[in-house]
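Protein of interest.
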Amino acid sequence: MGRKRLQPPVDGRPTVHTVAARAGVSIASASRVLNGRGGSAETVRKVREAAAEVGYVPNAIARSLQSQRTGLVALAVADIGNPVYVAMMRAIEAVVASSGRQLLVHATGGQVANETDLLRRLAHRYVDGMILSPIRITDAHLGALVDSPVPVVVVGQLPEEAPVDNVRTDSAAGVALAVDHLVAAGRRRIGFVNGPLDTVPGAVRDAGFRAALARHGVALDERLVEVGDFQYAAGRDAAARLIARADPDALLCANDLIAVGALHALLSAGRRVPEEVALVGMDDTELAQMAFPQLSSVSLGSAARGRRAAELLLERIADPSLPPRREHVAPSLAVRASSRPGAVVRHVPAPAHPGGTPPTPPAPVSVREVLP
């Protein structure tokens, strides 16, 4: 008996009807097999062979309408070119992919309007959930987070009462680690090159720097504090302004991009690193090890925070009734040649979280030789 003549669909793509006709089974049977709901071994074989013959591709939109799932997860960060977000994205993507989902990445430029617009668009349910890492938190953010019809996990600082899953670190504790290290190395004129103070990381790191100096009894010279942006060029220019008006024997920078810019500003000014000026960055990205000399840097656990945020999001998607979770990833300091000649990399864990909530245990201390 010959096969039935196939009627091509209007747009030329094979459909379930096409597969059912090719396999010689009912449309209902073909649909059950194609949607993974089984059938007899013979029916499954026929339908799969027919689907391969006609080049059938499942309609993801139709499936998502039936299941109320898109198979997509969104990540929104300020700058996808910043190595700290690259590390975070890689960790998130690995977790998301293991669940059979795909990751969509949005660059917001750190603009509140862009982030709140993305949160409002969640009402269209174009993704199953979102991970958001904002550098500013406003009432508009909080309202959109509470109203979101799909789960959202925030990487960064949120008010304690915010009913949203949240993974954070303690930037102030990270700054304190760097200041402790520099003071222990005999540095007293410690400069600080920061990002914008109207951002959460900028404000927290500024306060942490001032508190750490006060704890050591080191007087703060305001000429040794400079504000720019969390970018290489802005960091270079801010560091150049600082060293032109003051005489630091150490510089702490609010991220590694700023620190690389500061390194170039110091070298251009004829200052030797670390002999004359010790240099420490933050985030401990790949840039820290690519620089020469290699940069000491405070790790804020970007990959660990991203990984845990993705895990929390998948758990929330599976069970929306879970109570809000708030988790901490402890900072650590990697000491390299930029702050101590011939240094050995030492990963120094932060002390317990000052709020009394135990942080996520840091990785075991590792020691690694760095070539001079």
User: Anything to note?
Assistant: The first helix runs from residue 16 to 23. The longest strand covers residues 72-77.
